[in-house]
Amino acid sequence: MTPLLALSTGVLFATGMYMLLRRSIVKILIGLVLMGHGANLLILTSAGILRGSPPLIPQGEERIADAHADPLPQALILTAIVISFAIVSFACVLVKRAYEIAGTDDTEAMRSSELPIGSDPGGADT
Amino acid sequence: MSAQLLITLPVLIPITGAVLCILAWRSTHAQRAINLTASLALLAAAILLVMRTSAGEIPTVRLGAWPAPVAINFIGDAFSAIMVLLNAIVAVAGALYALGATPKAHERSGYHPLMLSLIGACSGAFTTGDLFNLYVWFEVMLLSSFVLLSLGGSRPQLESAVKYVTLNLLSSFLFLSAIGLTYALVGTLNLAAIAERLAASEDRSLFTPVIGLLLVGFGIKGGLFPFFFWLPASYHTPSPVVSGVFAGLLTKVGVYAIIRTTQLFAPGWSIDGGVIAHALIWISGLTMVTGVLGAAVQQDMRRILSFHIVSQVGYMVMGLAIAGVAFDSAQAPGIDPAQRTALMGAGALALTGTVFYILHHIIVKANLFFVAGIVEQLEGTGELPRIGGLYKRRPLLAALFFIPAMSLSGIPILSGFWGKFILVRAGLESGADIIVAVSLAVSLATLFSMTKIWANVFWAPPPPASPNDTQRPTSPTIAPPTPARTACMYTACGAMALVTIAIGFGAGFAVDLAETAGAQLTDPTPYIQALLPTDAPTDIELTAGEVTP
Fold first, then answer.
1. How many domains does chain A have?
2. Looking at beta carbons, which residues of chain A come within 8 Å of B156?
């Protein structure tokens, strides 16, 4: 299981990075989502995967005797998922607004804040 | 006040203020009052905290009375306390300045609660003792900053926000991956527990790439050399109070995280044979040079100042790198004991210099952006060729610009001089001559940039009104000027200029503070013991990392 998860993490990071390098802002957004999934999967894998051993203390005992799955990384991932959900929702709205205002989804044409003052930033409303 | 309550206050006060602001959503007047009150309360708490920590005490709290390695914790050593104090000073100045600078529309869209949650998140990042909580505070800070950056929604703001959001999210994911790898290798995320286990482990070489990943993540947030491009693309676009607070605080949170993690996780920098320290020397040099050269070609006040943030961050990392190289050479086998002591002393001095530099820089940089905001409010633009003659019309404003600008370039007596003096001395003592020469050259180029603004904005005659400019230009991100508004903004800038002068003339006090912080960074044992007391109950076993499938 672990090699498979490791491979999936790698694929998610690679595809995420590829999408981040595209010029369309929507594709960049998809790249960010993929990278986020990759990071979460990495945390899950890094704690070690155990089959069928939940971290539950049997009734009447104080602690778990056997090796068990580590619950902490899952709590971490849960937090990370909530955070990235909020941020990706914000990023979706931002991308839509930026597309409406700039009239383009091409990052090459979205440079009005970087170009020298007075130069033509490109896009639809120029 | 109990130490446990005191250390939670820097987070508690602003977050409570943010909640109150949301409850008072309809009344911008109430929100303003809450923002100002919460910022002043934060300042009081921060001063108390600095007084407690400067005596060597390290207040710690573990929430919910959980035992040490698993509890959510807050810890304030001298370095954290200084950062919280700076955070509070910027918050107060920002709240005051916002009375005059923030347009009504921004206030109705939630400027005040967002700013307070940003300040609270910065406090949290400065006082947390847990790697994952650091990530959470980073995210709270980023989310507030995303919205603050795009408040108003003009084209440059949204376009720069896309870049800002993308690169900062990328850095968050790298940081998150580094957290996962740390957990896999070390089995805990408590900063002190990581430091202890790393120091005890035989083979630390596996951890070097993780530190590298952490440094890339923090380097993006801190605006270091190959990763800084989001910064000059975005910091000049929002409302001036937002850029001022961002310029003062946000990159420094990244720098804080770099200093904290490297000092804790790389004991004596022996972890990797000084690879990271030497890499940081290069990075800091390139950061300083590219930042200052980028500023030289710009023709807009806030754009010039944005590039200077990059170059100034280089100075801070240079201090850390000099310390790293000194500590690393002190570990060399067969080194003369006297020379070893000298090198350790130079390293501690470099860390003192770094803390002092941050102390000086946050105040000065926020102040410069605030002054640039006043100029933009009065003139409608920050473009150098379109303004002039302000020295004659506004001598007080000229003085308010002159003080932080000269301090930034390191003119003697003002605060920047002492920061550079300590760093240069530490660099020479530890034999890092080349980087010291680079930093001095960059300092000269900074003076050139500041002189350029001074000559154009204040001394040059006003440009002749061109026929196209029948109307006075207005900036959509700044409230139109009124005497009351201008008075608020002048007061905020004046107060910060006074702090700069106080740091410069009362350098002894500030250096003592920085020295305490530098000593605690050099030898993090008290920090580790405060965070992970040895008498803590040990029946909690951290099984992760030892589980073999």
1. 1
2. 112-113
Least confident of A46-60, B27-41, B359-373, B486-500: A46-60
**H helix runs in B410-541, sequence order:** 415-429, 433-453, 483-505, 507-522, 525-531
A80, B176 Cβ separation under 8 angstroms? yes
CA B179 to chain centre: 22
Contact B174, B220 (CB under 8 A): yes
* pLDDT interval class at B542 (50, 70, 90): very low
Query: Residue B548 pLDDT > 50, yes or no?
Result: no
Q: What is the CATH number for A94?
A: 1.10.287.3510
> What is the rounded CA–CA span in Å between residue B76 and residue B329?
30
From B158's Cα to the closest Cα of chain A, the distance in A is: 5
Give the other-Cβ count within 10 Å of B3's Cβ. Answer: 15
Closest Cβ opposite residue B159 in set A20, A36, A113 = A113
Containing B219, the helix (H) or strand (E) segment is helix B207-222
For residue A121, is it within any domain?
Answer: no
User: How much is the average pLDDT of B224-252?
Assistant: 91
Q: What is the mean pLDDT of residues A17-43?
A: 93
Q: Which chain A residues are closer than 8 Å to B233 by Cβ?
A: 113-114
- Taking CA atoms, B336 is separated from B201, B277, B292, B339, in Å, by 27, 22, 39, 5
Instruction: Measure CB to CB from residue A32 to each of B160, B169, B233 and give the nearest one.
Output: B169
* A92 within a domain of the structure (yes/no): yes
CA distance B59 to B261: 19
Q: Measuring CA to CA, how many Å separate B70 from each of B125, B199, B228, B524, B545?
A: 18, 20, 35, 20, 15
Closest CB to B158 among A76, A86, A98 = A98
Which range is least confidently modeled, B53-67, B81-95, B128-142, B290-304?
Answer: B53-67
Closest CA to B68 of B160, B189, B236: B189
Q: Is residue A105 part of a domain?
A: yes
Q: DSSP string covering B7-18, please?
A: HHHHHHHHHHHH
pLDDT at A117: 65
* Nearest chain A Cα distance for residue B439, angstroms: 26
Q: Token pair 């959510």 is at which residue?
A: B72
Per-residue pLDDT at B472: 61
Could you give the CA distance from residue B144 to residue B327 in angstroms, rounded to a whole number? 38
Closest alpha carbon to A105 in A30, A32, A29, A26: A26
**What's the pLDDT tens digit per position in A52-76?**
778 888 888 877 777 778 888 888 9
Q: Do B170 and A38 touch (CB under 8 A)?
A: no
* Cross-chain CB nearest to B176 (options A39, A47, A90): A39
| pLDDT value at residue B539 | 45
Closest approach of B540 to chain A, Cα-based (Å)? 10
Closest residue to A50, CB basis, from B135, B146, B549: B549
Query: Does residue A35 sit within a domain?
Result: yes
Counted across chains A and B, CB pairs separated by less than 8 A come out at 136
ipTM of the complex as predicted? 0.91
Using a 10 angstrom Cβ sphere, with 0-12 exposed, 13-18 middle and 19 or more buried, the burial of residue B90 is buried
CB contact under 8 A, A97 and B181: no
Task: Tell me the residue range of the domain where A14 lies.
Answer: 2-50+70-109
Q: CA of B224 to nearest chain A CA: how many angstroms apart? A: 18
Cα separation of B9 and B459, whole Å?
46
Contact B10, B81 (CB under 8 A): no
Q: Quick check: A48 contacting B, CB < 8 Å?
A: yes
Measure the N-to-C terminal CA separation of chain A; round to a whole number of Å.
54
